[in-house]
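This protein record is not my work; I was only asked to verify it. Would you go through it and say whether the fold makes sense for this chain? Here is the record exactly as it was handed to me.
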Amino acid sequence: MKIYISVDMEGITGLVDHTHVDSSKLNYERGRKIMTQEANYVITKAFETGCEEVIVNDSHSKMNNLLIEDLHPETQLITGDVKPFSMVQGLNDSFNGAMFVGYHARASMSGVMSHSMIFGVRHMWINDVQIGELGFNAYVAGYFGVPVIMVAGDDGAAREAEALNPNITTAVVKESISRSAAISLTPLKAGELLAKKTEEAIQNIDNVKPLTPPKNPILRIEFANYGQAEWANLMPGTEIEVGTTIVRFQAKDILEAYQAMLVMTELAMRTTFS
């Protein structure tokens, strides 16, 4: 049994605003410690439940948040920026299942720090399916035939995951009050929940099917302002839909669509005024 774990930060227990997840802010060091502890609860239970190999991908911001010295010693950690496949770097068909920890709701939805890659994105679609980071990452896993067996984060992330795959196991460590407030479990209680749900997810692995992506998908991203759309449109093969801030791209497969999304959002971040 080989398990892949992608760990984001906005869905971690007790973290509710940018001061917890921005490395320049005062609560960040507390946030990354809780993030590391939370990842460890899942990793440890995965090994205890029979997994022989666990690969963890740090998936937040500069992707160097997890404290490697505090992780389970048998873990392998993918860390650092720039990664060709970002939040799903290293995921391939050798894995039996994937888990997403610390995840959040997509942009324009209710949830703690909800967003999709950057705060300039309003909506993303693959063909007619609206997705966020969670859905896009699940599609990449599905491309390799790997089911996402567990999602841990806030209640918004859980709802999103269950809509994509009703058989998935979810672990809700906090419930949104607003985009920057939540009622949260303590780290210890969250750890107990995560360990329980990790074991359940592994035992349920045969009942969860991969989220199979469409062939030749059309990626569409709606940006918050036209300047962002203009920057994204500098990527060859894209076009701005008339009268909108939506940029579309015809991809040959979901992997090309994913990398197109990374390039488009990176370009869009160069716009600083609305």
